[in-house]
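Bumping with the actual sequence this time:
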Amino acid sequence: MQRFLVKHLLLFVLLALGAFAQPKPVDPRFSEVERLVKAARATALIPGISVAIVERDRIVFVTSDGFSDLENMVPASARTLWRIASVSKPVAATAAMQLAELGKLKLDEPIWTYVPWYPRKGDHVITVRHVLTHTSGIRHYDYEAGEKESAEYFPSVEAGSHVNGVDREPLKFSPGTRYLYSSYGFLLVAGFVEAAGGLSFEGYLKEKVFTPAGMTTACLDKNRELIPNRARFYRKTDSGTAVVNAPFVDVSYKWAAGGILASVEDLAHYAIALDKGKLLSAESLQQVYADHKLADGKPTGYGLGWHVETDKDGRVWVDHSGGATGGAAFLRRIPAEGFAVVVLCNLERPTDFKKLVANITSAVRKK
């Protein structure tokens, strides 16, 4: 009888507490983000998507919709690992700038100090800074020739630099005189890091970037390894009316330019770590976010690994997009405010992806 009374008394207390508990109010901004995500999925046929919002250097909202794996109906989640494609570039640039802080990597040193195996380009001098700012004169992919979809495995940065014979081609212009976005150039950053850091590029990222930033699941996109929570990747048919599996690719030739897997939480933590000075000093970040100027003084809109823009109110925005085989990525930030938006998905070239990021940003910053 006593047990009966105690049991029912506890039940009464729990019910009473529940009656007085107030449900946590839903922030209408985040409800709008969820609406935007669902609408974009439906319009663009995106299999799965994840979004993270950072405000004042805190993750305040994470949402996912759809599937990371359509064939097995695996729901997308905050822990899904997506191809972040060229968002790998600012991560690799962070590693390079850490070594620059230590005096182990000199930005205005010729690249051959660190990658002596890379072919010389006549009398042209390519510096580390030229590579980091896309002003080296090394060209980008020829998409029509299918160059981006290499299926070959390359065991080293040097071997990867030979992909498609681009390393043996003449430069498109004298270094420093023009801006030409180049993943073929940026892949060399992994070589700089290995030479100056004394570790493999993967080992350096794990020890000096991923771990201190709290990027607990970020890794290189290695095909042979079993990687928990890795998404499957898709593209649309030529008619654009259906989704099919993306072709097999091996990104071992461009780890620094586009070879990282990460979750939205990994990239949110990365943004926070940069803002809090866990990865780079304030002086280094000032260089990183500075709009690089060409030899004639013309600004390029790109810093050291980041696209850079100053809005009408004087705020500096930095961002990087990424277009993978079977995926798309975007990281947009206001470093001075500790604000960031991360959007990752497993569809190649989704319709209006940049517009979706802009709409999410506007919804969140709406007062």
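The tokens above came from a reply further down the thread. Residues 27-365 form a domain with the Beta-lactamase fold (CATH 3.40.710.10).
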